[in-house]
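Ops channel
N.P.: pipeline sanity check, posting one input/output pair.
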């Protein structure tokens, strides 16, 4: 059983994102970057499956500029065995279908049994790549996974849906995207960070691949959210809050 995990380098979720003055995007200069939180959950799940003896190898893949090597090293410090970077120029903007097409090429060369992605990247909030990749590969998909169980060649996934949980069985290979409650990712230990520096990281230059960006989606403008103007009122007890809400006919 080989598991391929797609990881994206994004702005660290603790950082307040600033929009560029010209509205062309968000400021990335000197900003702390990190592995996309849902992808960290995907790496954790793959490593746990390996530790439980259900998987033999965990390979992580990222599409990004040379800095994405750091992201891949972080994933290897968590326990992934090796990494692939599909390296692109920093100024080349790719849409989710492009990312899915590039991941498809990696899947074809790696032949994994299970492909894990985050449910969404927190920088663009697209929530598209996993679904598109499954469609391109013509394999089953389970999105928003909160529990993954492997039994021989079949996979059982519990998904978080409106008002409850849904459990699916899929045959392998399959694409699964991770939700927040799947697990709590570990912190990499210093010895594992050191070990990760020596793990194999293969760089595939995008220019050497059979790939032309689609260029179907263009960002016109990025703006800051409106500042909150509402005043905050503190109530001493719940009774006072309830009577205020009743007076305003909110409840
Ligand atoms: P999105 O559809 O952009 O919200 O991304 C969903 C998931 O696709 C992410 O959580 C990642 O697992 C994967 N993904 C998106 N972009 C990349 C990328 N540049 N490199 C590797 N994986 C990616």
């Amino acid at each position: 059983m080989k598991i391929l995990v797609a990881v994206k380098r994004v702005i660290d979720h603790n950082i307040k994102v600033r929009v560029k003055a010209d509205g062309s995007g968000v400021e990335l200069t000197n900003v702390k970057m990190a592995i996309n939180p849902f992808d960290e959950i995907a790496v954790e799940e793959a490593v746990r499956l390996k530790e439980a003896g259900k998987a033999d190898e965990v390979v992580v893949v990222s599409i990004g500029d040379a800095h994405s090597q750091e992201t891949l090293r972080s994933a290897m410090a968590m326990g992934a065995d090796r990494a692939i970077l599909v390296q692109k120029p920093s100024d080349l903007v790719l849409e989710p279908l492009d990312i899915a097409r590039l991941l498809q090429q990696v899947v074809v060369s790696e032949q994994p049994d299970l492909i894990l992605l985050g449910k969404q990247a927190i920088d663009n909030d697209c929530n598209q790549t996993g679904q598109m990749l499954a469609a391109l590969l013509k394999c089953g998909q389970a999105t928003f996974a909160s529990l993954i169980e492997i039994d021989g060649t079949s996979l059982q996934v519990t998904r978080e849906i409106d008002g409850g949980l849904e459990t699916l069985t899929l045959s392998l290979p399959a694409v699964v995207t991770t939700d927040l409650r799947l697990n709590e990712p570990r912190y990499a230990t210093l010895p594992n960070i050191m070990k990760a520096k020596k793990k194999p990281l293969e760089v595939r230059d995008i220019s050497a691949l059979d790939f032309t960006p689609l260029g179907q989606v263009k960002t016109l403008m990025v703006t800051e959210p409106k500042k909150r103007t509402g005043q905050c009122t503190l109530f001493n007890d719940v009774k006072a809050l309830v009577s205020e809400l009743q007076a305003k006919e909110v409840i």
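N.P.: looks fine end to end. The chain has a mean pLDDT of 95.
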